[in-house]
Amino acid sequence: MSARVVLSEEELQLDRDLRDGVEVARRGYVVASGRGWALPLFVYGSLRRGRSAARLLERWSPTYLGEARVRGVLYDLGAYPAWRPFELRAHGFVARGVEARGVEARGVEARGVEAGVAEGFVHGELVTLPDPERALEALDAYEDFVAYDDPTSLYLRVPTRVQLLRGDAWEETTAWAYAWNGHGDPPIVASGCWER
Description:
Layout: H1 9-21, E1 22-23, E2 30-31, E3 41-43, H2 54-58, E4 63-71, E5 73-76, E6 81-84, E7 89-90, E8 93-94, H3 96-100, H4 105-114, E9 121-128, H5 132-142, E10 155-166, E11 169-180
Antiparallel strand pairs: 1-2, 3-9, 4-9, 4-10, 5-6, 7-8, 10-11
């Protein structure tokens, strides 16, 4: 059973803006011809500096733009975390495996609030990659992202709204992030910050 996704006019415009620079295809990323423009990447777990898998990201010589955050809930899966946006879609992408299991955005949001999620944000870092196509292909493999319509994908790489800290203010931008496509009832990280 597939759910119908209805996007607001604002989301449709963001989607058009995104597709102007990047063609979002089945595997999610193709650099638009002649532009060389790419979305930054939001990392919130083991790929962050000083974390267990940081070396995998550092292999691609990222430029760190700074502290960033996304709306959603952070789950503790044991060895690594999992971010689930409050809305299980970003610019038209739907976490099909999650929806098929009956998890709805409102339920995730309500559960996060009940569990005492501090601000409703997941904290991480925003980076740019000099060779995004190759880097994202390798990172997709690490994150067990197979394809958007493949229920075995543990994570989905989705374009999403990210807030980047600039001085003492948060600036909104769009970036890739890996959203959890799993199911179950893992513990919530109430602080929204993965410390391992």
